Amino acid sequence: MEENNCGGRAGLARPLDFWRKGEAMVQHIDGVAFQMGEPFDFGFLSKYGRVFKVFDDQDSGNICFGTEMDGQRYFVKFAGAPTARCPGEPKEAVKRLKASLPVYRDLSHPNLIRMIEAEDMGGGFGMVFRWAEGDCMGRMYPEEHRSFMALPIGDRLEVFDRVLDFLGHVHSMGYLAVDFYDGSIMYDFASGKTTFCDVDFFVKKPYINTMGRMWGSSRFMSPEEFRLGAEIDEATNVYTAGAMAFALLGNYSREREDWPLGEGLFKLARRAVSDSRAERPGTIRELRELWQEQLELNS
Q: Quick one: which of 43, 120, 255, 281 has the most CB atoms within 10 Å?
């Protein structure tokens, strides 16, 4: 079969419902519209029920689906299709997704989305998770983010504490968080539960930056994540945690006038995002202990 320049299949086993919009193809599955670089046969998803939601705005090469069958909902992450934002060959996305399989297994946590199975499917590779209710807290979802910022400060502090708890767990299991940002957080406004939904690029310690600019949202990345050959360690993730504090509590601003809590907490968050690694708390545990001390003084 012919291949397009993203490595996707141009020949299909059966006709698909799609039409071209600009550079992308608008395709439908079970009545849900989504964009693709080229049409692709997702008929294999019927194994997991009817598709009710598609997450197509990914730069990882993955495309994700919410499915429902017999009253159960699932989240299916798939690599191997020519997505609308295809950054390269789909086979590279398959390789990356397969590499994340032990990460999800090793980092099992009450706040991490729960993986059910993973297997080759549809000419690519898929991972199936239990569906987690909630809205993404990433800046790319402004309405959801505004709703989150309107919550009482105590509720937002609880989400940040879940971040610190999870990052502490990550390090206790011998991993480092890479590409962890507000878009990795889902919050259920009904139950107040926080879910972390994306740990695909987390790596085993020790780790050296072999890319230059690493994967991630620049707002949450330390200077060493842009420097080829730099050591990536727990102090790197302290920076990420500090950036997360400003995102969840200060609406991304790192200015004192926009900070809703006391001076001590502000100074600690600023220390955490210092360009100088020596000025940051050295570990997530230390950051969390200092944070708790300042919270008690702030109350």
A: 281
**Chain segment 68-119, per-residue pLDDT in tens:** 999 999 999 999 999 988 667 899 999 999 999 999 999 999 999 999 999 9
Write down which residue in 65, 95, 130 finishes a domain: 130
- Whether the model clears a pTM of 0.70, i.e. scores above it, the answer is yes
- Residue 159 maps to a domain: yes
Query: Cis ω on the peptide bond leading into residue 223 (within 30° of 0)?
Result: no
Task: Kindly state the average pLDDT of the residues 239-265.
Answer: 97
Burial of 148 (0-12, 13-18, 19+ CB in 10 A): buried
Which strand (E) or helix (H) includes residue 267? helix 263-272
Residues 101 and 232 in one domain: no
Alpha-carbon dihedral sign for residues 25, 26, 28, 34: positive
- Among residues 54, 49, 74, 73, the alpha carbon closest in space to that of 64 is found at 54
Which of 112, 130, 148 finishes a domain?
Answer: 130
